[in-house]
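Session log. Operator J.P. requested a structure for one protein chain; no other inputs attached. Running the standard single-chain path with C-alpha coordinate output.
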Amino acid sequence: MRNKWVLLAILCLIFVTYTVDRALLGLLAVPIQKDLALTDVQFGFLSAAIFWTFSVCVPFSGLAGDRFNRARLIGFAAVAWSAMAILAGFAGGFWTLLLLVSFAITVPQTLYGPSANALLAECHADTRTIALSCHQAAYYTGWFVSGAAVAGVLAIFGTWRAAFFAFGTVGLVLGAAFLCLTRGTSGTGGTSGTGGTKPTLASSLKSFFGCRTALLVAVCYVV
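Structure written below.
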Protein backbone atom coordinates (compact mmCIF):
# COMPACT_ATOMS: atom_id res chain seq x y z
CA MET A 1 0.00 0.00 0.00
CA ARG A 2 1.41 3.36 -1.05
CA ASN A 3 0.06 5.45 1.83
CA LYS A 4 1.40 4.19 5.13
CA TRP A 5 -1.13 6.21 7.14
CA VAL A 6 -4.07 4.67 5.29
CA LEU A 7 -2.56 1.27 6.07
CA LEU A 8 -2.38 2.22 9.75
CA ALA A 9 -5.98 3.47 9.79
CA ILE A 10 -7.38 0.28 8.24
CA LEU A 11 -5.33 -1.94 10.54
CA CYS A 12 -6.61 0.04 13.52
CA LEU A 13 -10.21 -0.53 12.41
CA ILE A 14 -9.55 -4.25 11.95
CA PHE A 15 -7.89 -4.38 15.38
CA VAL A 16 -10.95 -2.79 16.97
CA THR A 17 -13.28 -5.40 15.47
CA TYR A 18 -10.77 -8.12 16.41
CA THR A 19 -10.93 -6.98 20.03
CA VAL A 20 -14.73 -6.75 20.05
CA ASP A 21 -14.95 -10.30 18.67
CA ARG A 22 -12.65 -11.50 21.46
CA ALA A 23 -14.80 -9.75 24.05
CA LEU A 24 -18.14 -11.16 22.84
CA LEU A 25 -18.00 -14.41 24.79
CA GLY A 26 -17.38 -12.67 28.11
CA LEU A 27 -19.84 -9.84 27.52
CA LEU A 28 -22.59 -12.25 26.48
CA ALA A 29 -21.89 -14.85 29.15
CA VAL A 30 -25.29 -14.62 30.86
CA PRO A 31 -27.57 -14.82 27.78
CA ILE A 32 -25.37 -17.51 26.18
CA GLN A 33 -25.37 -19.70 29.29
CA LYS A 34 -29.10 -19.28 29.70
CA ASP A 35 -29.95 -19.95 26.06
CA LEU A 36 -27.63 -22.94 25.61
CA ALA A 37 -28.02 -24.29 29.16
CA LEU A 38 -24.27 -24.24 29.79
CA THR A 39 -22.85 -24.95 33.24
CA ASP A 40 -20.27 -22.65 34.82
CA VAL A 41 -17.64 -25.34 34.25
CA GLN A 42 -18.45 -25.59 30.57
CA PHE A 43 -18.38 -21.84 30.11
CA GLY A 44 -15.10 -21.58 32.00
CA PHE A 45 -13.63 -24.23 29.71
CA LEU A 46 -14.65 -22.18 26.67
CA SER A 47 -12.72 -19.18 27.99
CA ALA A 48 -9.69 -21.25 29.01
CA ALA A 49 -9.56 -22.92 25.59
CA ILE A 50 -9.23 -19.52 23.92
CA PHE A 51 -6.07 -18.69 25.88
CA TRP A 52 -4.59 -22.15 25.39
CA THR A 53 -5.20 -21.88 21.67
CA PHE A 54 -3.48 -18.50 21.57
CA SER A 55 -0.47 -19.71 23.53
CA VAL A 56 0.02 -22.74 21.27
CA CYS A 57 -0.62 -21.08 17.91
CA VAL A 58 1.03 -17.65 18.22
CA PRO A 59 4.65 -18.84 17.74
CA PHE A 60 3.66 -20.65 14.54
CA SER A 61 1.70 -17.58 13.43
CA GLY A 62 4.85 -15.51 13.80
CA LEU A 63 6.75 -18.01 11.68
CA ALA A 64 4.02 -17.80 9.04
CA GLY A 65 4.36 -14.02 9.01
CA ASP A 66 8.09 -14.38 8.25
CA ARG A 67 7.52 -16.87 5.44
CA PHE A 68 4.42 -15.57 3.66
CA ASN A 69 2.96 -12.28 2.48
CA ARG A 70 1.94 -10.49 5.67
CA ALA A 71 -0.65 -8.27 4.05
CA ARG A 72 -2.42 -11.28 2.56
CA LEU A 73 -2.20 -13.18 5.85
CA ILE A 74 -3.85 -10.29 7.70
CA GLY A 75 -6.64 -9.93 5.16
CA PHE A 76 -7.44 -13.63 4.90
CA ALA A 77 -7.21 -14.01 8.69
CA ALA A 78 -9.71 -11.17 9.22
CA VAL A 79 -12.11 -12.69 6.69
CA ALA A 80 -11.73 -16.14 8.28
CA TRP A 81 -12.32 -15.17 11.91
CA SER A 82 -15.20 -12.86 10.94
CA ALA A 83 -16.89 -15.63 8.95
CA MET A 84 -16.48 -17.96 11.91
CA ALA A 85 -18.00 -15.30 14.19
CA ILE A 86 -21.07 -15.20 11.96
CA LEU A 87 -21.32 -19.00 12.13
CA ALA A 88 -20.94 -18.84 15.92
CA GLY A 89 -24.22 -16.97 15.99
CA PHE A 90 -25.87 -20.23 14.92
CA ALA A 91 -24.25 -22.33 17.67
CA GLY A 92 -26.67 -24.70 19.30
CA GLY A 93 -24.66 -26.06 22.21
CA PHE A 94 -21.38 -26.39 24.04
CA TRP A 95 -19.43 -28.34 21.41
CA THR A 96 -20.30 -26.12 18.47
CA LEU A 97 -19.50 -23.03 20.52
CA LEU A 98 -16.18 -24.58 21.59
CA LEU A 99 -15.27 -25.41 17.99
CA LEU A 100 -16.26 -22.03 16.59
CA VAL A 101 -15.38 -19.53 19.33
CA SER A 102 -12.46 -21.19 21.07
CA PHE A 103 -10.77 -22.56 17.95
CA ALA A 104 -12.18 -21.47 14.56
CA ILE A 105 -12.24 -17.77 15.53
CA THR A 106 -9.13 -17.82 17.70
CA VAL A 107 -6.70 -19.61 15.36
CA PRO A 108 -6.92 -17.05 12.51
CA GLN A 109 -6.83 -14.25 15.09
CA THR A 110 -3.39 -15.43 16.21
CA LEU A 111 -2.13 -14.61 12.72
CA TYR A 112 -3.05 -10.95 13.03
CA GLY A 113 -0.77 -9.52 15.73
CA PRO A 114 2.67 -10.71 14.56
CA SER A 115 2.08 -9.85 10.90
CA ALA A 116 0.35 -6.51 11.57
CA ASN A 117 3.11 -5.25 13.86
CA ALA A 118 5.82 -6.39 11.45
CA LEU A 119 4.07 -4.80 8.46
CA LEU A 120 3.62 -1.51 10.29
CA ALA A 121 7.23 -1.53 11.45
CA GLU A 122 8.39 -2.02 7.87
CA CYS A 123 6.12 0.61 6.30
CA HIS A 124 6.68 3.19 9.06
CA ALA A 125 10.47 3.06 9.17
CA ASP A 126 10.73 6.71 10.30
CA THR A 127 7.45 6.85 12.24
CA ARG A 128 7.50 3.36 13.71
CA THR A 129 6.91 4.27 17.35
CA ILE A 130 3.87 6.47 16.79
CA ALA A 131 2.40 3.98 14.32
CA LEU A 132 2.72 1.06 16.72
CA SER A 133 1.39 3.24 19.55
CA CYS A 134 -1.72 4.17 17.55
CA HIS A 135 -2.21 0.53 16.61
CA GLN A 136 -1.96 -0.53 20.25
CA ALA A 137 -4.43 2.21 21.19
CA ALA A 138 -6.92 0.62 18.78
CA TYR A 139 -6.72 -2.56 20.85
CA TYR A 140 -7.72 -0.74 24.04
CA THR A 141 -10.34 1.23 22.14
CA GLY A 142 -11.91 -2.06 21.09
CA TRP A 143 -12.20 -3.20 24.69
CA PHE A 144 -13.56 0.20 25.70
CA VAL A 145 -16.31 0.34 23.08
CA SER A 146 -17.18 -3.37 23.07
CA GLY A 147 -19.53 -3.16 26.05
CA ALA A 148 -21.53 -0.25 24.66
CA ALA A 149 -21.57 -1.78 21.17
CA VAL A 150 -22.84 -5.14 22.40
CA ALA A 151 -25.42 -3.43 24.64
CA GLY A 152 -26.67 -1.47 21.64
CA VAL A 153 -27.06 -4.61 19.52
CA LEU A 154 -28.89 -6.38 22.35
CA ALA A 155 -31.19 -3.42 22.84
CA ILE A 156 -32.12 -3.43 19.15
CA PHE A 157 -32.30 -7.15 18.39
CA GLY A 158 -32.71 -8.70 21.84
CA THR A 159 -30.54 -11.77 21.22
CA TRP A 160 -26.87 -12.59 21.78
CA ARG A 161 -26.69 -14.20 18.34
CA ALA A 162 -27.22 -10.82 16.65
CA ALA A 163 -23.97 -9.54 18.18
CA PHE A 164 -21.98 -12.31 16.49
CA PHE A 165 -23.80 -11.68 13.22
CA ALA A 166 -23.27 -7.90 13.36
CA PHE A 167 -19.61 -7.74 14.33
CA GLY A 168 -18.73 -10.73 12.18
CA THR A 169 -20.20 -8.92 9.19
CA VAL A 170 -18.27 -5.72 9.95
CA GLY A 171 -15.02 -7.68 10.22
CA LEU A 172 -15.78 -9.54 7.00
CA VAL A 173 -16.22 -6.26 5.12
CA LEU A 174 -13.03 -4.77 6.58
CA GLY A 175 -11.02 -7.91 5.81
CA ALA A 176 -12.23 -7.99 2.22
CA ALA A 177 -11.52 -4.27 1.82
CA PHE A 178 -8.01 -4.74 3.21
CA LEU A 179 -7.32 -7.51 0.70
CA CYS A 180 -8.44 -5.30 -2.15
CA LEU A 181 -6.45 -2.26 -1.01
CA THR A 182 -3.24 -4.22 -0.42
CA ARG A 183 -3.36 -6.17 -3.67
CA GLY A 184 0.16 -6.29 -5.09
CA THR A 185 1.73 -5.35 -1.76
CA SER A 186 4.58 -7.58 -0.64
CA GLY A 187 4.92 -8.97 2.85
CA THR A 188 7.31 -6.19 3.82
CA GLY A 189 5.14 -3.33 2.67
CA GLY A 190 6.70 -2.79 -0.74
CA THR A 191 5.33 -3.60 -4.15
CA SER A 192 7.56 -6.50 -5.06
CA GLY A 193 8.51 -9.85 -3.60
CA THR A 194 10.54 -9.98 -0.42
CA GLY A 195 13.16 -12.30 -1.84
CA GLY A 196 15.86 -13.96 0.21
CA THR A 197 15.79 -17.18 2.17
CA LYS A 198 12.81 -17.75 4.40
CA PRO A 199 13.73 -18.54 8.01
CA THR A 200 13.12 -22.01 9.39
CA LEU A 201 11.43 -22.65 12.72
CA ALA A 202 14.77 -23.65 14.23
CA SER A 203 16.51 -20.47 13.06
CA SER A 204 13.61 -18.32 14.27
CA LEU A 205 13.70 -19.92 17.72
CA LYS A 206 17.48 -19.56 17.85
CA SER A 207 17.18 -15.85 17.04
CA PHE A 208 14.52 -15.38 19.71
CA PHE A 209 16.33 -17.18 22.52
CA GLY A 210 19.57 -15.49 21.52
CA CYS A 211 18.07 -12.02 21.97
CA ARG A 212 18.10 -10.82 25.58
CA THR A 213 15.59 -8.07 24.88
CA ALA A 214 13.07 -10.56 23.45
CA LEU A 215 13.48 -12.83 26.47
CA LEU A 216 13.01 -9.96 28.91
CA VAL A 217 9.86 -8.78 27.13
CA ALA A 218 8.49 -12.33 27.17
CA VAL A 219 9.13 -12.64 30.89
CA CYS A 220 7.50 -9.25 31.56
CA TYR A 221 4.37 -10.36 29.68
CA VAL A 222 4.14 -13.48 31.86
CA VAL A 223 4.59 -11.50 35.05
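Operator note: The chain has a mean pLDDT of 88.
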